[in-house]
Amino acid sequence: MDALTVFSLIWLTACLDFVGTRLHRIALDLEEWEMSRVRRAVARYNSSIKEETMEVSQHQRLTLNKMDLEELQALNKAVVGRIKWLRSEEAARMKRRLCFGCEVQFEDNDGKVVKGYVLKTMRKYAQVEVGKQTWRVPMHRLSRTSTPLGA
After folding, report:
1. Sheet of 103-107: strands edge to edge?
2. CB-side exposure of 39: number of CA atoms within 13 Å?
3. How far apart are CA 42 and CA 50, in angstroms?
4. Residue 134, pLDDT above cutoff 90
5. DSSP for the chain?
6. If you placed Cys at 101, which of 1, 81, 87, 148 could pair as Cys (CB 3.0 to 4.6 Å)?
7. What is the pLDDT of residues 56-72, one digit of tens each?
């Protein structure tokens, strides 16, 4: 090997080392930029959540922010399952208390309390007569207000 070839190899190695170091720094900067972007997005999301609709502690928020998509989906499935189970238990408990003619009340879609009388109980719903209208109301939304008519 002549001196020119050795010098060229040394020069090429130094250039590659320099480029590799620069690429590594660029990758670190990109990672830091991405993490700050994610932190800003999480902060925007957390501030956009209405406090009156969801009481979540700081610990819970930090825990949720550390979870990846699969963990959040598994948690969502468990929470939804628990909510469905609680509603079905509440509906079954209410169904045992209701009979034809019982006076009940419930909140309509506008948040107004509506009173009526039970016409029919089904598995998950009850038909409630409110004036001249018949409503199909989920059992878990009903609350009994008095004894049956004629009892």
Report:
1. 133-138, 125-130, 113-121, 103-107, 143-144
2. 6
3. 14
4. yes
5. --HHHHHHHHHHHHHHHHHHHHHHHHHHHHHHHHHHHHHHHHHHHHHHS-TTT----HHHHHHHHH--HHHHHHHHHHHHHHHHHHHHHHHHHHHHH--TT-EEEEE-TTS-EEEEEEEEE-SSEEEEEETTEEEEEEGGG-EE-SPPTT-
6. 148
7. 788 888 888 888 889 88
